[in-house]
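User: Please fill in residues for this 356-position structure.
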């Protein structure tokens, strides 16, 4: 009788709420669906809109459209410049950002199932002629593919030129990518060969006499030059940029007048793009030159070591050398880099407010 009583009670509950769905909050029309339909993960998209000076912008209209969202959805940035869309299904999407007095910007990307996608900051651009600026929203996978393409860049097809981004909207490097790029640049076979040539010239001119001559002297010169390159790369392009959240690459401009491009290249000797997409003083590069000069005193002969004043002087000359190198990158090097990777839509106008 007890078992029968429980069976009658269970049947009554099923009549009151369909069995297997009671209390689960299933939307109408999904009761007969598959378990996958019931538990399908939804995603979200969020981001920040700023003005050209980098301050957050309240009141910008953000419109989301997607193939699986025909009617579209609209959001307005809050006091922190933020916008967010929740309850989204996976697929390609397009965000259109509009604000009075600024050019409309279209941001495209892909949302994966269950992903909470944080967009790179959208910087409003003031322009009298442009009506829309296309910006590519890179996923982590796309960002890694872009770095791999940069590692194929070689002047005359031989000399590594990894630290130049020809995609103006290239995403910031991760900490791991900064270390990988510094390591690969230092141990590249061409870098080894160049180090060997420099060591040979130094030995022929008897530079750093404390190292002596013969095979032992050459080995010491080779080791010192290799250490210079390794320390400079790791400190200036990996360690400090990771700590200070700065990007060690030169971002090719390629558009505008010769004067504007020249001033941009010179400015990039002391400026850099931060991981947040904003331009800032290149503390990583400036401090990296000083640090690597100081560290070199540990392995150079006592008679050839630099004092503090000479270390700062050498770092100053290195900054001038960087400015000259940037000019070469902006006007010359690209023309001698065969099979340059194709970045597609990345040639759109710069959305990060590059200094002119």
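Assistant: Residues filled in for all 356 positions:
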């Amino acid at each position: 009788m007890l078992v029968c009583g429980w069976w009658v009670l269970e049947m009554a509950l099923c009549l009151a709420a369909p069995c297997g769905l009671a209390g689960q909050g299933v939307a109408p029309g999904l009761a007969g669906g598959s378990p996958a339909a019931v538990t399908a993960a939804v995603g979200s998209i969020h981001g920040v809109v700023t003005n050209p000076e980098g301050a957050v912008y309240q009141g910008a209209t953000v419109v989301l459209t997607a193939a699986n969202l025909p009617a579209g959805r609209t959001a307005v940035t809050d006091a922190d410049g933020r916008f967010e869309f929740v309850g989204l299904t996976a697929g390609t999407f397009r965000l259109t950002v509009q604000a009075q007095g600024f050019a409309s910007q279209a941001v495209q990307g892909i949302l994966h199932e269950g992903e909470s996608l944080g967009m790179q900051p959208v910087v409003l651009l003031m322009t009298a002629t442009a009506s829309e600026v296309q910006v590519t929203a890179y996923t982590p996978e796309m960002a890694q593919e872009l770095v791999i393409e940069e590692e194929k860049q070689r002047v005359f097809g031989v000399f590594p030129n990894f630290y130049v981004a020809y995609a103006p909207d290239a995403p910031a490097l991760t900490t791991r990518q900064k270390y990988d790029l510094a390591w690969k640049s230092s141990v590249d076979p061409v870098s080894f060969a160049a180090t060997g040539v420099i060591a040979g010239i130094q030995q022929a001119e008897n530079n750093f006499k404390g190292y002596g001559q013969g095979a032992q002297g050459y080995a010491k010169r080779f080791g010192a030059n290799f250490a210079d390159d390794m320390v400079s790369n790791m400190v200036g392009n990996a360690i400090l940029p990771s700590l200070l959240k700065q990007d060690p690459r030169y971002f090719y401009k390629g558009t505008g007048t010769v004067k504007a491009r020249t001033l941009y290249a010179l400015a990039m000797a002391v400026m850099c793009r931060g991981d947040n997409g904003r331009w800032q003083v290149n503390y990583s590069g400036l401090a990296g030159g000083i640090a690597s000069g100081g560290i070199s005193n540990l392995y150079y002969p006592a008679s050839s070591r630099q004092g503090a004043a000479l270390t700062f002087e050498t770092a100053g000359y290195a900054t001038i050398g960087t400015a000259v190198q940037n000019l070469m990158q902006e006007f010359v090097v690209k023309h001698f880099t065969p099979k340059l990777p194709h970045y597609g839509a990345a040639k759109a106008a710069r959305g990060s407010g590059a200094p002119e």
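For context: The chain has two domains: 38-137, 142-347.
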